[in-house]
């Protein structure tokens, strides 16, 4: 089977336009008839949904903090098999990492041996763009910055000034995207909205693709890609939650890592999907139920009225199924959610937990998780936490003991009641 070449799209800082440029590249290359496999560095759930839609092929996460190097290489190899190009969108700036200094996009590029295209926001830049780019290109010998795409260029004159300065760096200028209001993505309290919630996503994608086709030298960009490592070994996977796992899937429960689900399938588990927003219950054949994260607080009234969903979860609990919720899924397992407007919505009531988002406080960071629960996973896990809501549990043992990336102990996470359990942690893998 043919194995792709690969490139990483990164930037000096967040907000430079990596996501728009990546979407445009995926869609523009797809228009040319190429098969492009998308991936995202880090724990982000939302960018991969955009890139997957643009590529017409599911995106994966490659997390250089949470995942061992052999898993990163194996997942990249698996994702790139049969494709013409693996295109990895970076997170934050190229060398931005977690609090312990590990897990940057640069770390991922070096682990995979892939070259980096640097997206530079040209707004308020002139000739000083050259030392900026040169500094990133020479900062770490193992990270190969091989080309530059300028974003938000103000005018033809501005582009000439920038291009002239960049010639001193010796790096090719692959393109210069003009400043356009049509190339601004909508945002929400936890980042971008989901593609299905974005009016005119197809128009936005097509505009980005056309901007790339008009202003980026795609032939030169493709020529800079390097082959992926051909690894026959399958990626390391967490054991499945059960033999038949019913998984909630809709816009309220959209945050399930593809590598987890693929790993469960590869180990012989049957996966079925149901929509709580459509008032569907988990399969009666399921011996495990997984409620992923998402935005349940935006659908409180619908979820509160979903009686078939509620009774289906109670029935699953009563027959001894393992029921596991992450972040939004954990919130829904509780007694209620107080939304941003202060309105309370009754949830499934399987855990004596109340969550509220009307007093927002951001909690963000990687977590090392320890547990002694019925989860069929190793006692040590790597995960990520990102939420603005808070949960109050009454008298239950926590699901996880937690450390942050620096090894600093965090408050215990989640709750366990029999075989029903959940927490705010999104589990990524075993270390």
TrEMBL record:
Which transformation does this protein catalyse, written as a reaction? hydrogenobyrinate + 2 L-glutamine + 2 ATP + 2 H2O = hydrogenobyrinate a,c-diamide + 2 L-glutamate + 2 ADP + 2 phosphate + 2 H(+)
Name the PANTHER family on file: COBYRINATE A,C-DIAMIDE SYNTHASE (PTHR43873)
Matches recorded under InterPro entries: CbiA/CobB_synth, Class_I_gatase-like, CobQ/CobB/MinD/ParA_Nub-bd_dom, GATase_3, P-loop_NTPase
E.C. number, please? 6.3.5.9
Which residues carry out catalysis? 327
Which key words are in the record? ATP-binding, Cobalamin biosynthesis, Glutamine amidotransferase, Ligase, Magnesium, Nucleotide-binding
Cofactor(s) needed by this chain: Mg(2+)
Enumerate the spans annotated as CobB/CobQ-like glutamine amidotransferase domain: 245-429
CDD domains assigned to the protein according to its UniProt record, in alphabetical order: CobB_N
Question: What's a Gene Ontology MF term here?
Answer: hydrogenobyrinic acid a,c-diamide synthase (glutamine-hydrolysing) activity
Q: Record's HAMAP family? A: CobB_CbiA
Q: What is this protein called?
A: Hydrogenobyrinate a,c-diamide synthase
Please name the top-level EC class of this enzyme.
ligase
* Pathway(s) where this gene product acts: Cofactor biosynthesis; adenosylcobalamin biosynthesis; cob(II)yrinate a,c-diamide from precorrin-2 (aerobic route): step 9/10
| Every CobQ/CobB/MinD/ParA nucleotide binding domain range | 8-189
